[in-house]
Amino acid sequence: MASAGAQGRETNESSEKWLDAHYDPVANLYTFSSCVVLADLHGDGENKLIVGDLGTGLYNMKLKVYKGITMLSEHTLIDLPTGVVAFLMDTNEPRTPAVAVASGPYIYIYKNLRPYFKFTLPPLEVNSLEQDVWNQVKEVRTV
């Protein structure tokens, strides 16, 4: 049987392994997990949180950059973001990543958080079996 002191020590040790996250119900962030990434944007060894904020779903879509709980910058997005990723696109020093934002049929590349390039993805044909399933679902909902 462990003493009360030993139990208290075990509790303190186990609680030290957990990170206390920040919770802010008025942060006004609406996003998917695929639109959140950490990256060392300035090559200073300090990661920033980059969030593709969905806004209302129709308006106010933003690319937001946070350091800790402070928003450093926000940049307007043209369309609803579906994914955000940071990647190295050159070998220049210091190694600073570019940020890619997937949105509709486009991938927008930001270098130093400024618009740099826009890729247009080629359209794909819809699988006929999948199209039939979606049509059946549509018919069931209208009945």
Provide an overview of this structure.
With 143 residues, this protein is α+β, with helices and mostly antiparallel strands. It has one domain (26-142). 19% of the residues lie in helices and 33% in strands. It contains two helices and eight strands; from the N terminus they run αββββββββα. It has helices at 4-15, 128-142; strands spanning 36-39, 48-53, 62-67, 70-76, 83-87, 98-103, 106-111, 114-120. β1 and β2 form a beta hairpin.
- Share of helix, binned: 10-25%
The sequence of SSEs as H and E is HEEEEEEEEH
Give the structural class. Answer: alpha+beta
N-end to C-end Cα span: 66 Å
In this structure, how is the largest beta sheet organized?
4 strands, antiparallel
* Oligomeric nature of the chains: single chain
Mean pLDDT: 84
Going across the biggest sheet, name each strand in turn. 1-2-3-4
Shape: globular
Q: What Rg do the Cα atoms give? A: 22 Å
**Count of helix runs:** 2
Number of strands: 8
Flag low-confidence runs: none
> Strand-residue fraction?
25-35%
Whole-number count of domains: 1
